[in-house]
Amino acid sequence: MTSTWYTLLMLAVAAERLAELVVARRNTRWSLARGGVESGRGHYPAMVALHTALLLGCLAEVRLAERPFPAVLGWAMAVVVVASQALRWWCIRALGPRWNTRVIVVPGLPRVTGGPYRWLSHPNYVAVAAEGLALPLVHGAWVTALVFTALNAVLMVVRIRCEDGALARLPAADAPA
Predict the structure, then answer these.
(1) Is 159 in contact with 125 (CB distance < 8 Å)?
(2) How far apart are the C-alpha atoms of 137 and 58, rounded to whole Å?
(3) Number of separate helices (H) and strands (E) present in the chain
(4) How many beta carbons lie within 10 A of that of residue 45, not counting itself?
(5) Which residues contact 176 (CB under 8 A, 6 or more apart)?
(6) Max Cα distance, the chain (Å)
(7) Do 46 and 155 meet the contact criterion of CB atoms below 8 Å apart?
(8) N or C end of the chain, less CB within 10 A?
(9) How far apart are the C-alpha atoms of 76 and 79, rounded to whole Å?
(10) 119, exposed or middle or buried, with CB in 10 Å at 0-12, 13-18, 19+?
(11) Gap between the Cα atoms of 156 and 43, Å rounded
């Protein structure tokens, strides 16, 4: 049976996702009010479904396959989950009102090169990949970790191409955020 603390962890991650959606909706309104242009609407529902399936898959696999808690791996992966959350919120802070779960670019605004964007073009996707692998492994749900990671890799190819194309239309980089 799924341990209570793992279920609470999944609920906490789900709550964090809801907080992201609140921020994203606010930022969508901000971007669209400034002439923002959305790209990649076609892949967005698949992304939402995959991220929802990750949380459900974690719980289902642990319960149905009676996965034990692998103490050393589990605690190490819990640290990765926390680190991925920190990186994600650093990305949100660095992008400010431009951060979104959708690909929306406001014409005339330069590309952000501060925060984690100083070193990586897509640090939020590093956080997504790390969390998607680590979250299931916290409680030994290795099938969910493998399936999510494989499907997420395919989705990220589509998403990054879409985002890079949209960002290519921005002017030269601005000062670090």
Answers:
(1) yes
(2) 9
(3) 5, 2
(4) 9
(5) 113, 114, 115, 118
(6) 53
(7) yes
(8) N
(9) 5
(10) exposed
(11) 10
| 3/28 Cα distance (integer angstroms) | 37
Expressed in percent and rounded to 5, the helix, strand and coil fractions of the chain are 70, 5, 25
Place of tokens 């969508």: 28
Q: Which two structure tokens, joined as six digits, stand for 163?
A: 């985002």
List the one residue out of 155, 142, 176 whose CA is nearest residue 51.
155
How far CA 27 is from CA of 35, 83, 121, in Å, comes to 12, 24, 20
Taking the whole predicted model, whether its pTM rises above 0.85 is answered as yes
User: Which H/E stretch holds residue 68?
Assistant: none
The CB density around residue 98, as the number of other CB atoms within 10 Å, is 19
Tell me how many degrees the CA angle 7-8-14 measures, rounded to the nearest 5.
Answer: 90
pLDDT at position 176:
42
* Collapsed DSSP state (helix, strand, coil) of residue 103: strand
